[in-house]
Amino acid sequence: RFDVLVNNAGVLFRDHLDSLDWEKIRLQFEINAMGPLRVTKALEKQLHSGSKVAIITSRMGSIADNGSGGYYGYRMSKAAVNAAGVSLARDLHPRGIAVALLHPGMVQTDMTSGKGNFTAEQSVSLLRARIEEMSLEKSGEFRHCNGETLPW
Question: Are 54 and 47 in contact (CB under 8 A)?
Answer without folding.
Answer: no
